[in-house]
Specification:
The chain has about 400 residues and is an alpha/beta fold. About 35% of the residues lie in helices and about 25% in strands. It folds into two domains: about 270 residues, Aminopeptidase, CATH 3.40.630.10; about 110 residues, Alpha-Beta Plaits (2-Layer Sandwich), CATH 3.30.70. Helix 1 runs antiparallel to helix 3, helix 3 crosses helix 9 and helix 7 crosses helix 9.
Length: about 400
Amino acid sequence: MINKIKQLTESAFDEIVEIRRHIHKNPELSFKEHKTSAYIKSVLTGWGIPFTEDIADTGIVVLLEGNNPSSKTIALRADFDALPITEENEVDYCSVNNGVMHACGHDAHTASMLGALNILNTLKDEWKGTIKFVFQPAEEMLPGGAQQMIKEGVLENPKVEKMIGQHVFPDLEVGKVGFCSGKYMASTDELHITINGKGGHAALPEKYNNPLLAAAKLILDLESSFVKDKELPSVLAIGFIEGLGSTNVIPDKVKLKGTLRAMDEDFRATAHKRMQEIAKEVANSYNLEIDFDIRKGYPSLVNDIALTENAIVLAKEYLGTENVIDLPIRMTAEDFAYYSHQVPSCFYRLGTRNEQKGIVHGLHTSKFNIDEESLKIGMGLMAYLAIKN
């Protein structure tokens, strides 16, 4: 089976590269991926593969049945939205949509899964069960497409028993993949804080209540509280402060923005309460008001241990032991996490780096690109994992 899949990846490679480049050249932002969705559907139609459309607006689902379809149902997922970044690569397939770029590899995710679908459709008399291919919009923007697709029943009819997703990884050289069992990626919450004081002339302190002082105290108290607590990995960071005063002007209000990342949902809930308590203490101390708005984002991503350990064994069979890497936890976030809280899931990394070709730039940067040889592994390994798990 491995040899058959690898032969089919070679046969499909040129077409999958063409698909990836088309998607890369025509990126669309989250919740606006109408042309991308239409293109994916045109590819499926050209292959004679039926699909269900308009899930979470632009999402698409394909059901592929092998022998004894009711014996198991496993789902594969790929996202297809882009980022608000101006591309600086000098390639023929550079983005034609100014200020929008596939800087996170979702073009490669979608092309790889289309390749896996094509391979498995060719081999459907040689594997058992049902495979559900989930083409998901809007991974990059809250509330995320995964949550909406789940609400609209993507994990039902037939009921998904296991789910697999892959993500490009420019830190890992092409030819390799990486896995992490158990807790893998962090939850993400946005912090939007407004401190309401009383502004005035800086030379007349008796007439104002400086919200900048409270802002400074709040930042330091939050930092101090979370630095002390390192039993569980977490990140609290304030990345934005706006006062709009001047050398002799004290503003009425200060705005702060930041993020909370956590690997544990119980810790996350406790942290929310703690931040609110700290804000209340600072507000009381400075005799002003603090509006502390926590906008909940994606949950932490947990890779099912049994499924992931089996996927590691299968990956070593497919690629060789030396090409399968153990990965540490990451404090970045992914809305695939929603699936991982519903069904046993495995989210792994696909190496795309090639220093000789100058393909070394990180995710979410204007010069991010992939070594397209990784698409062979992307589609082939995904196909193998789907039929063997």
